[in-house]
Amino acid sequence: MDILYPLRRVYWYLKKCYVRYAMKHDLQGLASLLYYDRFHKRIDWKNPKDLNEKINWLSFKTDTSMWTRCADKYRVREYVKECGCEDILVPLYGVWGQASDIDFASLPNKFVIKTNHGSGDVIIVRDKTAINEDEVRRRMQHFLETPFGRALAEPHYLKIKPCIICEKLLEDEDSEHPVDYKVWCFDGTPRYILTMSDRVIQTHDFKANVFDIEWNRLNEFIPDDYKNDVYVKRPTHLKEMLEYAGKLAKPFPQVRCDFYEVDGHIYFGELTFTSRSGRMDFFTPEALRIMGDMVTLPKEK
Fold first, then answer.
1. Phi, psi at residue 294, to the nearest 5°?
2. How many CB atoms lie within 10 A of CB 268?
3. pTM of structure
4. Which pLDDT value is given to residue 5?
5. What are the angstrom distances between the C-alpha of 293 and each of 30, 141, 229, 252, 286?
6. Measured between alpha carbons, how far is 152 from 31 in angstroms, rounded to an integer?
7. CB-based contact 127:110 (threshold 8 Å)
8. Which residues are CB-neighbours of 12 under 8 A, at least 6 positions away?
9. What is the pLDDT of residue 211?
């Protein structure tokens, strides 16, 4: 018998108790714990170096009110318009404060319905006549009432006023979901493009690849566990996509600007400030360090 088993049980119990406490009272401490669990090293809060560390530092040491506004999938539409990029917004079909208010009769046969404050809280409807409206309402109300940001230590999400939004379904003839082009910007300048192909929204599975802004594939940025031979089409309007990203990213030390290209048209996805909650493992340590060097940290609040 493992003589350390009782001690391990005590450790896991105490850890579970701390996580419950930290989710309400010490999100920075929770961020430190989650980071250590994934990478087996501590965040250097005094002198952050790589991109993950700097994302965490920015989350807890700076004013993130603009993050809250722009991470809100509904309110960010105002910001996109202010930046002169209204033409890339996905058509909006409806906005509701409660799931009981969803007006299915007013919606087209195909659509995407989601909350504005979460990640993965999405239901894709390809045939409205085949859905159970009560079940969709039940799931959306559950999403609506979930305080996203607490469990993963992303405090700016907790300040978003939740609502439900419905948008046009973007369809790609070559795959079930369009390629997600995620343009990494530092101090308002696009530097790299992370692509996610073959995505499964519910499980967060995907095939990741990285390109520079000239569309040269950077296999050295991807760790072995994520390497793949998936062909990723260069966006037809790559230049315009990068221009949009530069406009949207201008005020921020770092941000990921997500886009789709469907039928030759660029669509805005979202702005992400805490990619993978500041615990990305789909970049190599060297890539994270290179990208971290591009982040100019502002003064601590």
1. -85, -10
2. 22
3. 0.92
4. 67
5. 25, 41, 29, 15, 11
6. 7
7. yes
8. none
9. 98
User: Is 251 in contact with 224 (CB distance < 8 Å)?
Assistant: no
Q: Whole-angstrom Cα distance, residue 91 to residue 170?
A: 10
Q: Write the DSSP assignment of 150-172 as a string of letters.
A: TTTT-GGGGGS---EEEEPPP-B
Secondary structure, 3-state, 25-51: HCHHHHHHHHHHHHHCCCCCCCCCCCH
Q: What pLDDT does 174 receive?
A: 67
Per-residue pLDDT, 23: 85
H or E, element range at 93: strand 92-96
Q: What pLDDT digit, counting tens, does each position of 28-83 carry?
A: 999 999 999 999 999 999 999 999 999 999 999 999 999 999 999 999 999 999 99
Contact indicator for 39, 51 with CB cutoff of 8 Å: no
Query: 291, 109, 114: which is closest to 193 by C-alpha?
Result: 291
What is the residue type of 23? M
Q: How far apart are CA 16 and CA 160, in angstroms?
A: 27
Sheet strand arrangement including 111-115: 92-96, 164-167, 111-115, 122-125
Rounded to the nearest 10 degrees, what angle do helices 27-39 and 5-25 cross at? 140
Q: Which residues of 67-91 are buried (b: 16+ CB within 10 A; e: fewer)?
A: bbbbbbbbebbebbeebebeebebe
Which pair of structure tokens corresponds to residue 5?
A: 């088993």
Ranges in the chain, pLDDT < 70:
1, 3-6, 174-176, 199-204
At position 82, the amino acid (one-letter code) is E
Predicted pLDDT of residue 172: 80
